[in-house]
Design brief:
The protein is an alpha/beta fold. Helices cover 47% and strands 14% of the residues. The chain folds into 2 domains: 178 residues, 3-Layer(aba) Sandwich (Rossmann fold); 83 residues, N-(1-d-carboxylethyl)-l-norvaline Dehydrogenase, domain 2 (Orthogonal Bundle). An 8-stranded mixed sheet has the order 3-2-1-4-5-6-7-8, with helices on both faces.
Length: 287
């Protein structure tokens, strides 16, 4: 399963849903992969999720027991940023917050070898802004994977103002070698995926708040009428309502347009701690 057109070693910072999924994909393709987070409990949870996912692939016959064992052997968990000194690519996958990402980027920039590429899995925050916090702006790029990472084909590749052609070419090639389809976007708030997706989710929330239809009806109309695999309110719960609000705030601030104003109903649910699937309650309940 190894591929010579991939980095020798990769670090993924952030062991949450996206981070552990990205780490699984690299390890599955033969790459020595370091999953890094600030607490061991976060790493334990992330590694457990990878093992659970690999178990499902084994049950389906997609992977053999030997292949699963080899993938697990390539995946290393660490709370030490020093492991970044061993890698050719680092993918940041922490919370969608500029201050947090900036701190991570500066620490990663200091720990990485000079040649290494520093990528962000951000779904909305400016790659140019993050790159400017480092001493390697030409080697900073966006690699926006989709959830669930092992299954979804798209990698939205975002080029910052100073990203070098060589960096883009390498990341495009690596993405293809992972079995993904890289699609290039330029560095504007929300890029392409979320600039189009989030207003749809937001409008669905407004329609629900205004009593246009029930949550089930809104989702069913979009599924049956637009051929979407899941309705926008179900999708918002899957993404996390807090993440949706954060991205809408980035769009509103970055583009200066009130049409990206987050629906008050969605803000209220976030304030109440009802963030979607991860808290068992959002627009829907998940007992």
């Amino acid at each position: 399963m190894s591929n010579t057109n991939l980095p020798n070693a990769v670090a993924v910072i952030g062991a949450g849903t996206m981070g552990n999924g990205i780490a699984q994909v690299f390890a599955s393709c033969g790459v020595t992969t370091y999953l890094v987070d600030i607490k061991q409990e976060f790493l334990d949870r992330g590694i457990a999720n990878v093992h659970k996912s690999l178990g499902k692939f084994q049950e389906k016959g997609t992977l053999t027991a030997d292949q699963v064992a080899a993938i697990k052997g390539r995946l290393h968990a660490s709370t030490d940023m020093g492991v970044l000194g061993k890698v050719d690519l680092c993918v940041e996958a922490v919370t969608e917050n500029l201050d947090v990402k900036t701190k991570v980027f500066q620490a990663a920039d200091a720990a990485l070898p000079a040649h290494a590429i520093l990528a962000s899995n951000t779904s909305s925050i400016s790659i140019t802004v993050l790159a400017a916090k480092t001493k390697r702006a030409d080697r900073v790029i966006g690699m926006h994977f989709m959830n669930p990472v092992p299954l979804m084909k798209l990698v939205e590749v975002i080029r910052g103002n100073d990203t070098a052609d060589k960096t883009c070419d390498l990341v495009n090639g690596w993405s293809k070698s992972l079995g993904k389809i890289p699609v290039l976007a330029n560095d504007y708030p929300g890029f392409v995926a979320n600039r189009i997706l989030m207003p749809m989710i937001n409008e669905a929330a407004f329609a629900l708040m205004e009593g246009v239809a029930t949550r089930e009806a809104i989702d069913e109309i979009m599924k049956l009428g637009m051929n979407h695999p899941m309705g926008p309110l179900t999708l918002a719960d899957f993404i996390g309502l807090d993440v949706c609000v954060s991205i809408l705030d980035v769009l509103k601030d970055g583009l200066g347009d009130d049409k990206y104003r987050a629906c008050p109903l969605m803000r209220r649910l976030v304030a109440a701690g009802h963030l979607g699937r991860k808290t068992k309650k959002g627009f829907y309940e998940y007992p």
